[in-house]
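Can you please make up a whole protein chain along with its backbone structure tokens because I've never seen that pairing?
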Amino acid sequence: MRHILIFSGVEEVKVKVINEKCEKSAADDKTLPKSAYLVTYVKEEKITYDIVMADSRVEIFDHYWDTYKEGLQSISWTKGNVNPRQWNSNNPSPPKKKVTKKPRKRDE
């Protein structure tokens, strides 16, 4: 995954490229985050697809418009169903604690 930082004035805008120069069918993957977009643009007279994430569609548009101008064709949703906060998280689930039983005292 590649991160693109765009500085506009004081604000910092992040566009995360999940899959660059991929097939259009990659957008049908349901394991993508819900906030992922399929960007279609023309580069060197060839239609190219990227799957990206950002806080808003405007940030994606600004980045691709600045880069490709009229080559930008569309920005559409992917079919991802995963919560963006849980997608691709590197935090493993905590290990389960073992419960040990204490031996019972017997009255003799």
